[in-house]
Amino acid sequence: MTLSSPNRMIWCYFKALRRQVHDIMNLQIELVQKEDVATCVFLAITVIEAFVNIFFRIVVSEQQFNGHEQRVLKDLSCRKGLDNKIRKWPEDILGRSIDWTCGIGKEFMDLKDLRNSLMHFTSSHSKLEINGIHIHGLSDTSIFDALSAEKAVTALAVAEGVIAEILRIRGYPEEEVKHGLHLWTGKVPC
Fold first, then answer.
1. Is 78 helix (H, G, I), strand (E, B) or coil?
2. What is the pTM of this model?
3. Which of 7, 91, 88 is nearest to 55 (CA)?
4. Where does the chain show beta strands of DSSP type E?
5. How far is CA 124 from CA 127, 128, 130, in A?
6. Residue 40, in any domain of the structure
7. What are 130-186's pLDDT values in tens digits?
């Protein structure tokens, strides 16, 4: 068994995400860039889920929130999905939720939808006819082909933004949010 501080895995995931975003900016081969952008999207959602799991596990160990501990432990043990946890835990435990209709909440939902489109990709099994030649079974890969370096930068910003918003909901004063981001993500305050 290796025991570590609760933020260790979040730091490691963010270091990997930041490294990938940095490297993507220098890639000259478009297909390789798209491949790496897709992994940034996956990793950004993964780091948000890992943070939510760990952060709320810590929150419910505090006296004022320990009435929610069994629920969080149960949700974690039966592997409730991120959507369920991120929508319900902040409001049920902390009394406030992220606004999912605008700002960082909407950006997160858009990123999660992109991740789901990429991760749960299935063939459209399309047909194409060119000069009498019929090709059957093609896949519409538009979602992948639309990926750009900017989407990797956005994925990183959304991951940091969601965590900052959860810290605000937890009660961090605005001037402390940047220090909370440093604690949880390794982002050095400006």
1. coil
2. 0.92
3. 7
4. 126-130, 133-138
5. 9, 12, 18
6. yes
7. 898 888 888 889 999 999 999 999 999 999 999 999 999 999 999 999 999 999 999
